[in-house]
Design the sequence.
């Protein structure tokens, strides 16, 4: 690297610290954004393929997922100038967002929400398996996840369920098969 390239990297690092990082943190729940900035996380998963992190409640799955995505976005921004999009959604909240579109006067549509989560470059799908799996909920999840699978979109899942448990809960293994193909599975966190 020459001096100009090093200077440019320093400039982007400064922009990350003063502006871009805050933009990405705003997509996270406040508790998660605060805690990932306060703590160090050894052995963060490589999210280049996608990750399915599962384990017991209160073991740091969501924090590890969020920190891994932030580290990836930071690296891409500073070293390659890639500006990827990022979203965090809790599965039950996603389904509720879509149900709210059925209320009179709501400007969002079911399709616009589905398309948003289909197209985001990095998506943290938090607490998959917590939702009750009706035919409608299954279809919504399938539409989002199948699109992401077919278009090589990086998805990070957190769950209290193993993939076998998730498959049993959903009564079908199509979603689980896609998760297995698009993600590295991180052993249970104790």
Sequence:
């Amino acid at each position: 690297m020459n001096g100009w390239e090093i200077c440019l990297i320093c400039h982007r690092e400064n922009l990350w610290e003063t502006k871009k990082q805050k933009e990405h943190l705003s997509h996270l729940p406040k508790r998660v954004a605060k805690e990932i900035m306060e703590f160090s996380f050894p052995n963060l998963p490589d999210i280049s393929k996608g990750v399915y992190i599962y384990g017991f409640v209160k073991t740091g799955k969501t924090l590890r997922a969020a920190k891994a995505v932030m580290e990836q976005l930071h690296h891409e921004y500073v070293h390659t100038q890639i500006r990827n999009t990022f979203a965090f959604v809790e599965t039950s909240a996603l389904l509720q967002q879509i149900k709210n579109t059925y209320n009179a006067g709501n400007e969002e549509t079911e399709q616009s929400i589905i398309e948003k989560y289909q197209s985001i470059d990095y998506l943290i799908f938090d607490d998959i398996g917590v939702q009750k799996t009706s035919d409608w909920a299954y279809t919504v999840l399938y539409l989002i996840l199948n699109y992401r699978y077919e278009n090589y979109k990086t998805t990070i899942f957190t769950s209290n369920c193993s993939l076998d448990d998730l498959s049993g809960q959903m009564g079908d293994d199509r979603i689980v098969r896609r998760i297995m193909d698009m993600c590295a599975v991180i052993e249970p966190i104790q």
Q: What stands out?
A: The CA atoms of residues 53 and 158 lie 5 Å apart. The first helix runs from residue 3 to 25.
